[in-house]
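Can anyone check this?
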Amino acid sequence: MSTLSASRAAVRGQRRNRARRGITLVEILVSIILIAVALGGALNSAGAVATQMGGGMRHTVAASLAQTRLDSLASLSCAQLPDGLSGSVTHRGVKEEWKVVDGRNIKTLSVTLTIPRRVQKPAYTTVIPCRD
């Protein structure tokens, strides 16, 4: 009888193990919390990347505006560039201010840009020799 009782106990143990297989509610909740934390971090990173890319686009527009302005002013003769000539314009959210300063046989052209959400204002300067 002891062999019979031992085999019955083994069968009962197997039934209990089979009944305990599966995932508990606590395990499901922990896995959901871990997934939520991971997704939150990924979304936060994605937002930062999008912000950086937008900033890069504004800087590209600003540099292009400054280059265009300097080229257009440099194409003029010194006689057409009076001392103190200045102006400003806003294009695609970037404010551009330019000024011509007269020097000894030179003209100094400077362009200052105001870019949204940026504290520092980039400034570009070039010198044109006057030969006329």
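Reply from J.R.: I decoded it. The CA atoms of residues 48 and 54 lie 10 Å apart.
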